[in-house]
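Inverse folding, one chain.
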């Protein structure tokens, strides 16, 4: 009933500003903050653009992981407290392995990371969690995705990398329906490889890569208004298969012009997995 209720009150589209980047030839990188802090971004020229974002709820069942890069799913969780690290690993990790196997057809799924985020600065600092990411990006690159397999599964990596694998993530609200900074997804069919700019990600002890995204008027954006705890995105940020299926999914949080006054700050979790086929 939640999905139908949201259809009654949410607009078909919103106009919002998404933060792209201009490919000006400079090196783009992010210095990752300690939990509770704010990441520092450098290089490239910010390129905020007003775009139309479509309400995905009326066609929620149409999105296909291998075509659009993401799925919107109804999925209940038995996690009582998402701020309990042990409970996430004990309860949520197995739930996510099962969900991603079901959605992707993968034979094996390995959860390797999770991130809690909030749009509330005080809560972020108190709970030592991360800020929302209000720039268009994709989390892994042609280099960093296989490198992650080598990092996490060093003894098996070279054998595993001979076959198809993907990095698939799940994002969901963890308490209240999302009223601020919802997550928008670009249809993977509208994203060109030439739109993606390698961005170095510098964290203590590790250098990674993500893709920053430059503006392309062909990008088609979707959001699902007021997502609830029992609703989630399953989305693909890398696929080694190059047969025309979706390989990347550009996404971003955005300032929602329909956010109510005194809206509760968004709180969410994303889980990162390696899926082997």
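Residues assigned per position:
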């Amino acid at each position: 009933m939640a999905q139908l209720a949201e259809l009654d009150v949410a607009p078909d589209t919103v106009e919002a500003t998404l933060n792209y980047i201009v490919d000006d030839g400079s090196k783009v990188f992010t210095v990752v903050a300690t939990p509770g802090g704010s990441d520092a971004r450098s290089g490239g020229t910010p390129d905020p653009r007003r775009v139309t974002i479509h309400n995905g709820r009326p066609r929620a069942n149409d999105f296909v992981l291998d075509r659009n890069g993401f799925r919107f799913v109804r999925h209940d969780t038995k996690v009582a407290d998402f701020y309990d690290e042990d409970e996430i690993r004990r309860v949520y990790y197995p739930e996510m392995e099962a969900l991603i196997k079901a959605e992707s057809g993968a034979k094996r799924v390995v959860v390797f990371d999770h991130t809690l985020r909030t749009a509330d600065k005080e809560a972020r600092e108190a709970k030592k969690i991360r800020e929302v990411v209000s720039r268009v990006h994709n989390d892994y690159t042609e280099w960093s995705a296989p490198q992650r397999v080598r990092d996490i599964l060093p003894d098996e990596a070279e054998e595993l990398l001979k076959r198809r694998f993907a990095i698939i993530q799940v994002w969901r609200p963890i308490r209240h329906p999302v009223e601020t900074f919802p997550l928008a997804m670009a249809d993977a069919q509208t994203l060109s490889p030439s739109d993606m700019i390698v961005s170095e990600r510098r964290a203590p002890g590790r250098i990674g890569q993500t893709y920053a995204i430059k503006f392309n008027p062909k990008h088609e954006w979707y959001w699902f208004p007021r997502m609830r705890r029992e609703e989630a995105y399953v989305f693909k940020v890398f696929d080694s298969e190059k047969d025309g299926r979706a390989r990347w999914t550009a996404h971003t949080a955005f300032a929602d012009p329909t956010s109510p006054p005194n809206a509760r700050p968004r709180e969410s979790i994303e889980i990162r997995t390696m899926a082997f086929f």
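Helices lie at 2-9, 65-68, 85-104, 121-127, 144-152, 157-160. DSSP finds six helices and 15 strands in the chain.
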